[in-house]
Design brief:
alpha+beta, 5-stranded mixed beta sheet, two-stranded antiparallel ribbon, 5 helices, about 15% strand, elongated
Amino acid sequence: MNGTPLDSFENSVLLSILGECALALENIKNAKEKEEAAVLAQNEQLRANLLRAISHDLRTPLTAISGSADNLLANYKKMDDALREQTFTDIYDDSMWLINLVENLLAVTRIEGGQVNLTRSIELMDEVVSEALKHINRKSKEHTIRVTSGKDFILAHIDAKLIVQVIINLVDNAIKYTPVGSVIEIHTDQKEQWVTVSVSDNGPGIPDEQKPRIFDMFYSGANKVVDSRRSLGLGLSLCKSIVTAHGGTISVSDNQPNGTAFKFTLPAGEVELHE
């Protein structure tokens, strides 16, 4: 180190240290490459599953819509009013289902690398819930939907469009998996710096063994959708991603005396006064 050449022993020790460092760096590089390859393979598998699910789920309602429209064009004058109304209703129901699917897919595209690009603002939760109910499945008329609140005015600091989609997904899920005549309740409340939103029903509930996987992408459980369509399996997974991006949590539990309750939290908002 003082300009004096290394002797043979010191030189061999230095070469050994450099060799160990090089080997360690190579191991780190190999581990990083393996990790990147695993992530790439997982993304490719996810993309393949998504495309497979989308192609299946799009084909069924599109076939129904085109078939109903063709039937109207060919036999409109032969149909009575009741049959025409039912055919138009079928087209509307399938169209609304497709719109909900597209909204979920658009929300998925906003999730990159596990993060959601949020456009936050201070929103009144009553208005957010009301907006969501405007887009609820037509079959909601066969259920009783109640909206309650623990406080008169609850403000949240959220991306309103995404939270609307969360509420739509949770209520649609309750409609699909509960019998006609069931009661669905949307309740909002605030505790300190957190807003709590719950969507509960008095249906058959979710088996305990399914609860740990209920928020996994493409998982739809053993229950069958009421209209026999297979769910895309994005709804609850998307809800978890959106709520987590807001810094909140989402959970599922048994409703008492029977049914299912989904609950999620959001950061509360404060009114800003500009003088």
